[in-house]
Write a structure and sequence with these properties.
Layout lengths: L1 H30 L3 H13 L1 H12 L3 H26 L2 E2 L2 H22 L3 E2 L1 H24 L10 H4 L5 H35 L4 H13 L1 H12 L3 H26 L4 E2 L2 H23 L3 E2 L1 H23 L4 H28 L5
Helix pairs in contact: 1-2, 1-8, 1-10, 2-11, 3-4, 3-11, 4-9, 4-10, 4-11, 4-12, 4-13, 5-11, 5-12, 6-11, 8-9, 10-11, 12-14, 13-14
């Protein structure tokens, strides 16, 4: 039964991702909103629907570790695994708006979330603050896009270029987008159900399940969408989907979960001491990676993937109580990430410094 759930879920993810990307690109071109902003908002929020459903349900059920672990684990996975995998397939071009505006927002929101959680709990007031930030971000993103209206994406239907479109075209494009999203959510749900049953059968803690199995399962729509977008040449959607999803996860998913939970949601000391700092470090690392020529090369994609393997290795050692857990965790948090950030920072400085005369 578990294998059937996983196989069916994977198939639905592929089909749903194709529909979502096609529909989103058509709507972006017709509405005058750039494909980057569509990726940052419509696609990103849509593919984060499984995270919202799982975390709110876990919060209402008193499973705070799953609610928090799902969001933090998804954000780490989005950057390290999804961007890494997408860049390995096709080197990704990064829009300058993303570097100037959206990545700093992602870093700021990650830092704010960590600071709000330092007392061990995210209450309803903190949740309302995060949710309000999401509304401000969406309005601001759309206004920026309207002011900096980009050309119609290459490869869009010729009908879009000719001007006014019949209402049936809009309905079909919207149906393609919403239908793709619905199929993605169902596929993710099937895979999460199968994976959680397997993990719980092995006796893994709820925090570890949230950080790994559930985070990976609810991020499958982002994986499928970004990889499919990269293959189709829609690189703004591939990268914008990841950055937008991370912002939505913290402001929307975590904010709403804290608001609807009777006493807010507790944040475990293990998450405060390791997982949240790793999430922040990963967000900060995006800036120098993106700045190096405004691309994510295959080598940088491999580096991101390597870090995700190291992170999952640490969690596996922690779950099993292995003696090497402390060494791997300290090495990742205090040596590997800072040294990589230093190296990327030096590369960025060389790229940005004025040429000598």
């Amino acid at each position: 039964m578990t294998a059937l759930l996983l196989g069916s879920g994977f198939l639905l993810l592929v089909v749903g991702a194709e529909g979502l990307v096609r529909g989103a690109v058509r709507l972006a071109a017709a509405s005058g909103i750039s494909s980057l902003v569509i990726g940052l908002t419509v696609v990103a929020f849509g593919t984060s629907a499984p995270e919202l459903a799982v975390s709110v349900g876990a919060g209402l059920g008193g499973q705070a570790d799953i609610a928090v672990g799902n969001v933090v684990g998804s954000n780490i996975l989005n950057v390290l695994l999804i961007l890494g995998l997408s860049a390995l397939i096709v080197p990704l071009t990064v829009a300058r708006q993303l570097v100037r505006l959206d990545v700093p927002v992602m870093i700021g929101v990650s830092l704010l979330t960590w600071l709000l959680a330092l007392n061990g709990r995210l209450g309803r007031l903190e949740g309302a603050l995060l949710a309000t930030g999401l509304v401000v971000y969406v309005v601001w993103s759309i206004r920026v896009s309207r002011r900096q209206s980009e050309a119609v994406p290459e490869g869009t239907d010729a009908a879009v270029r000719r001007g006014p479109l019949p209402w049936s075209w809009w309905v079909a494009s919207a149906a393609l987008t919403v239908g793709g999203l619905a199929v993605l959510v169902v596929g993710a749900r099937l895979m999460v159900d199968g994976a959680v049953a397997l993990a719980r059968g092995l006796g893994v803690s709820e925090l570890i399940i949230g950080l790994t199995v559930i985070a990976a399962g609810t991020s499958l729509p982002e994986v499928a969408t970004s990889v499919m977008a990269a293959l189709r040449g829609e690189r703004d959607i591939a990268v914008g989907n990841v950055v937008g999803s991370n912002i939505f996860n913290l402001l929307g998913v975590l904010g709403l979960t804290a608001m609807v939970s009777p006493r807010g949601i507790g944040v475990a000391p293990a998450a405060l001491g390791f997982d949240l700092p790793v999430m922040l470090a990963v967000a900060v690392a995006c800036l120098p990676v993106f700045l190096t020529g405004f691309t994510i090369s295959r080598a940088e994609g491999a580096l991101l993937l390597g870090y995700y393997v190291a992170y999952v290795t640490y969690l596996s050692l922690h779950a099993s109580g292995h003696a090497a857990e402390g060494v791997v965790g300290a090495g990742l948090l205090w040596f590997a990430l800072p040294l990589t950030a230093l190296g990327l920072g030096l590369t960025t400085w060389r790229v940005l410094r004025p040429a000598r005369t």
